Amino acid sequence: MKLKIINNDEHCTHVALSGKFDCEGVAEVFEDFKRNVTARKLPAILDLTEMDFISSLGLRTLQVAAQELGAGGAKLVLYNPQPFVAAGFAQTCPVTNDLGEAMRLAAPQS
């Protein structure tokens, strides 16, 4: 499992996860994920294009991140997830296959 930082500016976080987000994968990237996504308390785009597999623990990790960001008024936007992941998050956070829309959805609302 790899976590790649695409953008971490003062307005938004954009990271990509690639590989298997199972028990081992979550353990490999958890601290980086927490530091670069949830701890920043900024809107975040999570690119899931190269995620091969996600386990129930991986799904729970994303749900908790969405809840933590939401509690502070920020959004977690899932970009290009596998269909079963998208279905599981329809009520939790925005999901899109369009990067421009992901950026728009993550932008702070004025």
Rg, Cα atoms, Å: 12 Å
**Low-confidence runs:** none
The rounded distance between the terminal residues' Cα atoms is 36 Å
Query: In which range does the helix fraction lie?
Result: 40-55%
User: Helix segment count?
Assistant: 4
Characterize the largest beta sheet: strand count, sense, and whether it forms a barrel.
5 strands, mixed
Strand content: 25-35%
Q: Tell me the series of helices and strands, N- to C-terminal.
A: EEHEHEHEH
Give the structural class: alpha/beta
The total strand number stands at 5
* Global mean pLDDT: 91
**What's the overall geometry?**
globular
Widest β-sheet, arrangement of strands:
1-2-3-4-5
Report on the structure:
- By secondary structure, the chain is α/β, with parallel strands linked by helices.
- The chain is built from four helices and five strands; from the N terminus they run ββαβαβαβα.
- The chain has helices at 23-38, 56-71, 83-89, 99-106, and strands at residues 2-8, 13-21, 44-54, 76-79, 95-96.
- Helix 3 links the parallel strand 4 (76-79) and strand 5.
- The longest helix is centred in the first third of the chain and has 16 residues, at 23-38.
- The mean pLDDT is 91.
